[in-house]
Amino acid sequence: MEPAPSPQEKYQLITRNLQEVLGEDKLMAILKERELKIYWGTATTGKPHMAYFVPMSKIADFLKAGCEVTILFADLHAYLDNMKAPWELLELRTRYYEHVIKAMLESIGVPLEKLRFVRGTDYQLSKEYTLDVYRLSSVVTQHDAKKAGAEVVKQVEHPLLSGLLYPGLQALDEEYLKVDAQFGGVDQRKIFTFAEKYLPSLGYAKRIHLMNPMVPGLTGSKMSSSEEDSKIDLLDRKEDVKKKLKKAFCEPGNVENNGVLSFIKHVLFPLKSEFVVLREEKWGGNKTYTAYEALEKDFAEQVVHPGDLKNSVEVALNKLLDPIREKFNCPELKKLSSAAYPTPSKAKPGEKGTKNSEPEDVIPSRLDIRVGKVISVEKHPDADSLYVEKIDVGEAEPRTVVSGLVHFVPEEQLQDRLVVLLCNLKPQKMRGVESQGMVLCASSVGEPRQVEPLDPPAGCCAGERVYVEGYEGGEPDEELKPKKKVFEKLQADFHISEDCVAQWKQRNFLTKLGTVSCKSLKGGSIS
């Protein structure tokens, strides 16, 4: 038998690859006396995706360090967060999470018998817990509750009271799960510091907090369940994995916001302690790296090509996903998956709908709207009023788009500008040039007509998904059929608010960084 790791060795295992630790001295003091008790919680909202392997690999580290680990399926939190999981689907989604998280852990070799699995509603509806929620609400200010949830709870124009309760419940979980530490992403930091501030006011101990960095998605921004192109789902087919990795942001020599490299660093290296770059012999053959820093250095110096890196990650990722796919190939789990995450075309619980009308539901999530960056712009050779633009929308090649903006927006104002592009219209030839999308613009109501391209929030990346508030989930149509007039029906309710925010039926157009807007055309239409 291998000798038990020393407290220092345990500390190194527990903290490796973390971005931040709050309470390092307390952590070391506990490790010198006994095993650490720690929990990781996940709200049962959107489908878990490949970024969930990051906390899974840390859980493997915690077990190697001898920690007592609890996994919380935070079902009540999922409902409180702006009803991301409707009450009618809560039980189904929690069951889905239990199956898929356990399948992930098994795929990386984590023994399930060493873990404790708990549902939030197992204890959060008890008399004692409910009383503590009331006690906490009597000392927490609205400002602190809102600030604590700013990075985690969905931010909307008219927030619900439930979102203000969310941080308090997460703080109380530390006491009721009887742990020394809570582990989560660095986006949870404000909730963690909130817990450190307020738990002592109820007579409870301040806990240790361990934080993972946020792994970039495939588009270079945060990986998100609501942004389809940023993630690979755990049940994606191998051909879908290949397609998404092929489109992933992985610029030669660029190690910043590189989701492919980050996945290697935070998942594959901790699991295997090495990574093999697969290459043809003419390009030097396969190369095995035993330290991530050496791989990052070679990529930065362009010794490793993005294509080889993506292909190698594809092989390694599919090895992790294969047992999960196999487990979910049974009729029972297929049925659970469909029931927990019904297709967007079906009426939501509580909404009216008939079997005949289900496929024809006209909802904003059917539109594939993305942030685009104008790479080049020039006048159409055969039309004085049209521009021909090359627009980067996070794909392998920029799209060619024809826009009637010559009389409204100077060329130099379009060049290198971020725009909002509708990407799933059927390609259409405009005076001999095929247009592969539509730049969405605000238009004035009266004369003289004014037009302004919609502006995504500052800091967005090309390819980020734009969605309508409340319609974050669901897959857009691969291509909108002209005869169905889906876009035209939705467009009838597009407008610009008095605050210059783009809306559909008073619901804001959003990216993960905030609202989509225009410069000045209050009350205008969108086309």
Automatic annotation (TrEMBL):
<dbReference type="GO" id="GO:0005634">
    <property type="term" value="C:nucleus"/>
</dbReference>
<dbReference type="InterPro" id="IPR002305">
    <property type="entry name" value="aa-tRNA-synth_Ic"/>
</dbReference>
<dbReference type="GO" id="GO:0005524">
    <property type="term" value="F:ATP binding"/>
</dbReference>
<protein>
    <recommendedName>
        <fullName>Tyrosine--tRNA ligase</fullName>
        <ecNumber>6.1.1.1</ecNumber>
    </recommendedName>
</protein>
<feature type="compositionally biased region" description="Basic and acidic residues">
    <location>
        <begin position="348"/>
        <end position="358"/>
    </location>
</feature>
<keyword id="KW-0648">Protein biosynthesis</keyword>
<feature type="region of interest" description="Disordered">
    <location>
        <begin position="339"/>
        <end position="362"/>
    </location>
</feature>
<keyword id="KW-0539">Nucleus</keyword>
<keyword id="KW-0694">RNA-binding</keyword>
<dbReference type="GO" id="GO:0006950">
    <property type="term" value="P:response to stress"/>
</dbReference>
<dbReference type="InterPro" id="IPR002547">
    <property type="entry name" value="tRNA-bd_dom"/>
</dbReference>
<keyword id="KW-0963">Cytoplasm</keyword>
<dbReference type="InterPro" id="IPR051270">
    <property type="entry name" value="Tyrosine-tRNA_ligase_regulator"/>
</dbReference>
<dbReference type="Pfam" id="PF01588">
    <property type="entry name" value="tRNA_bind"/>
</dbReference>
<dbReference type="GO" id="GO:0004831">
    <property type="term" value="F:tyrosine-tRNA ligase activity"/>
</dbReference>
<comment type="similarity">
    <text>Belongs to the class-I aminoacyl-tRNA synthetase family.</text>
</comment>
<dbReference type="Pfam" id="PF00579">
    <property type="entry name" value="tRNA-synt_1b"/>
</dbReference>
<dbReference type="GO" id="GO:0006437">
    <property type="term" value="P:tyrosyl-tRNA aminoacylation"/>
</dbReference>
<keyword id="KW-0030">Aminoacyl-tRNA synthetase</keyword>
<keyword id="KW-0547">Nucleotide-binding</keyword>
<dbReference type="GO" id="GO:0005737">
    <property type="term" value="C:cytoplasm"/>
</dbReference>
<keyword id="KW-0436">Ligase</keyword>
<keyword id="KW-0067">ATP-binding</keyword>
<feature type="domain" description="TRNA-binding">
    <location>
        <begin position="363"/>
        <end position="467"/>
    </location>
</feature>
<dbReference type="InterPro" id="IPR014729">
    <property type="entry name" value="Rossmann-like_a/b/a_fold"/>
</dbReference>
<keyword id="KW-0820">tRNA-binding</keyword>
<dbReference type="InterPro" id="IPR012340">
    <property type="entry name" value="NA-bd_OB-fold"/>
</dbReference>
<dbReference type="GO" id="GO:0000049">
    <property type="term" value="F:tRNA binding"/>
</dbReference>
<dbReference type="InterPro" id="IPR002307">
    <property type="entry name" value="Tyr-tRNA-ligase"/>
</dbReference>
